[in-house]
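Researcher: Sit down with what I've pasted below and flag anything odd:
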Amino acid sequence: MMLQLTPVEVLAVLGGLLALVVVWRASAKATRRASEAARSSVRLMSLTGRVLVTAAAIVGVQWIVIKHPGSEGLLLAVLGVPALFASYTLTRALTVTAVEMPQQKKGRRR
């Protein structure tokens, strides 16, 4: 059994394969971009969660000390030290510390 293909049929098969490769590469790039975008939003949500947990801990400790009065030094410490932690946390949350550059392929010049 001999398979005989015309040049048009060969070109059609090669064109179909080329189109398949192009679509595959484009979908891989789109998937990578979507993955990077999702990773960035997860980092933001993680940071927001840490800020909220820290704030809840500060409020809880302050509420306990204010409800059960003792020495004024303890009251000042309970109000002052958490304020330092809160200011540090908020400063970190609202400050851009790094700019993420997209990763370049190996072998490309920068």
